[in-house]
């Protein structure tokens, strides 16, 4: 292999930048391939990664949008079909049934790398969790499954009973009363949060919570869990359609580790990923 | 992982202003992600970089297949409520995105604009040159310099470096 000059290396980075900005023509591609081969110290995706983080930085600056529920549903179907085609149904799984929970380790099977697989991977400093991409892809499926729930949760007739059951049976259940709210219109809200860490299950009980118009605003629960994430975890979107007491099941979208507080905000229909507040009702440990 | 759906959707809406086109693109992107699972290696890139790269490649393909699209006032015509797009909160991703944000803030606005139109919105160099009334060579140089500078600031290590070497 011919040692590469600094000039060649500079040209290589220019071409990598062109590739990352989709500005590479056929002739450039040939040159790029040659230069990559001559520069084993340069990974072909270095600039692609820089572009990926640049893209996210711009997106964070301008703000994003929530994926429509209908699209999530279609993705569930497609993901399920693809997974079943690649791996076959899991033991005990009925073909065509999408599991409603994050898949267990059995799903983390190694799929054969496609023929388009890149050159051997370059070790890279990483603080990313140790899950493999196979699991990550499965989690993507699970994500849309989890999200394939009614955006507005309305307490069913058995919610009172299931809450009572949790309170009486879970050994670690926490009961946290709502702090006296100070937000205008919410001063009269009372009730509590119950949460079982071992079961990852809980309920909100709210009395005198103002009725919301689901077409305009929906309530969203947030679970403050600094051990899990610097941002509060989405605990589900819900509506309050009648005065009086309502019980809302908590729909934590991630595994909760050590909850410190539960808070409710009012958000755009469907909820948001990160709320700008204000916090309307809060219960803290 | 929960957040990647919104991330991909947000990128699609940025590239493709038509919601139906964006929906089609997002489905293609996720299928591509699932099919590409076998070649993901966390030692090469974080999950979010991997997903973003696939998404961007697919979206650029889409807009080029569809032909020229109208040039809008990029970055100035956001639709919908500004929410966090769902950048995963892993330490690495957060750190790297923050570094890029810092680099961008140090660039002059026109340089930022060129980079945003190219990397964030998928416009070709010639479209950017036309829209901003800049020579094509200037656009190309700014995109290149911007990305190479960001790559340097991110200190993406060379192939073959071990975690121990990087730590030392």
Question: What are its keywords?
Answer:
heterodimer; A: about 280 residues; alpha+beta; four-stranded antiparallel sheet; 6 helices; elongated; B: about 170 residues; mainly alpha; disordered C terminus
SSE topology string of chain A? HHHHHHEEEEEEEE
| pLDDT averaged over residues of chain B | 77
Q: What is the residue-mean pLDDT of chain A, rounded to a whole number?
A: 72
Largest sheet of chain B: none
Sheet bearing the most strands of chain A, described? 4 strands, antiparallel
The rounded distance between the terminal residues' Cα atoms of chain A is 63 Å
Largest interface, C-beta within 8 A: A-B, 87 and 94 residues
Number of strands of chain B: 0
Radius of gyration of chain B: 17 Å
Please tell me what the overall shape of chain A is: elongated
Helix content of chain B: 55-70%
Q: Count helical runs of chain B.
A: 8
What does this structure look like?
The complex is a heterodimer of chains A (285) and B (168). With 285 residues, chain A is of the alpha+beta class. Chain A is built from six helices and eight strands. Chain A has helices at 6-20, 26-38, 46-62, 69-87, 133-147, 159-169, and strands spanning 174-177, 190-196, 201-207, 218-224, 233-238, 245-249, 261-267, 281-284. In chain A, strands 1-2-3-6 form a four-stranded antiparallel beta sheet, with helices on one face. A four-stranded antiparallel beta sheet of chain A has the order 5-4-7-8, with no helix packed on it. Chain B is mainly alpha-helical. Helices cover 64% and strands 0% of the residues of chain B. Chain B contains eight helices and no strands. The longest helix of chain B is centred in the middle third of the chain and has 19 residues, at 47-65. Chain B is globular and about 40 Å long. At the A-B interface, helix 1, helix 3, helix 4 and helix 5 of A face helix 1, helix 2, helix 3, helix 4 and helix 5 of B.
């Amino acid at each position: 292999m011919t040692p590469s000059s600094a000039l060649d290396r500079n040209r290589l980075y220019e071409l990598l930048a062109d590739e990352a900005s989709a500005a590479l023509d056929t002739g450039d591609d040939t040159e790029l391939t040659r230069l990559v081969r001559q520069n084993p110290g340069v990974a072909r995706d270095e600039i692609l990664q820089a572009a990926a983080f640049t893209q996210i930085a711009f997106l964070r600056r301008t703000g994003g949008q929530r994926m429509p529920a209908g699209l999530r549903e279609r993705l569930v179907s497609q993901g399920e079909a693809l997974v079943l085609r690649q791996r076959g149904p899991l033991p005990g799984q009925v073909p065509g049934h999408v599991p409603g929970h994050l898949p267990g380790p059995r799903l983390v099977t190694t799929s054969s790398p496609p023929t388009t697989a890149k050159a051997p991977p370059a070790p890279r400093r990483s603080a990313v969790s140790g899950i493999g991409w196979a699991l990550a892809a499965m989690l993507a499926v699970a994500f849309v499954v989890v999200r394939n729930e009614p955006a507005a949760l309305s307490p069913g007739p058995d919610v009172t009973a299931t809450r009572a059951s949790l309170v009486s049976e879970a050994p670690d259940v926490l009961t946290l009363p709502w702090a006296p709210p100070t937000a205008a219109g919410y001063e009269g809200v009372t009730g509590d949060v119950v949460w079982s860490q071992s079961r990852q299950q809980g309920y909100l009980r709210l009395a005198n919570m103002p009725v919301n118009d689901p077409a305009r605003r929906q309530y969203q629960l947030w679970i403050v869990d600094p051990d899990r994430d610097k941002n509060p975890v989405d605990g589900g979107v819900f509506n309050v359609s009648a005065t009086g007491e309502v019980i809302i099941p908590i729909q934590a979208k991630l595994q909760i580790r050590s909850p410190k507080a539960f808070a409710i905000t009012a958000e755009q229909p469907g909820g948001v990923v990160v709320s700008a507040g204000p916090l309307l009702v809060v219960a803290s440990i | 992982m929960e957040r990647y759906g919104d991330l991909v959707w947000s990128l699609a809406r940025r590239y493709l202003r038509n919601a139906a086109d964006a929906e089609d693109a997002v489905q293609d992107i996720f299928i591509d992600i699932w099919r590409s699972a076998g070649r993901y290696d966390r030692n090469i890139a974080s999950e979010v970089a991997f997903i973003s790269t696939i998404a961007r490649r697919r979206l650029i393909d889409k807009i080029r297949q569809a032909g020229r699209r109208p040039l809008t006032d990029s970055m100035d015509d956001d639709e919908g409520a500004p929410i966090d797009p769902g950048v995963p909160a892993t330490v690495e991703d957060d750190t790297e995105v923050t570094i890029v944000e810092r680099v961008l803030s140090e660039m002059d606005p026109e340089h930022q604009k060129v980079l945003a139109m190219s990397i964030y919105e998928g416009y070709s160099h010639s479209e950017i040159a036309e829209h901003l009334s800049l020579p094509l060579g200037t656009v190309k140089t700014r995109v290149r310099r911007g990305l190479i500078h960001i790559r340097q600031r991110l200190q993406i290590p060379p192939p073959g470096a071990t975690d121990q070497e990087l730590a030392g």
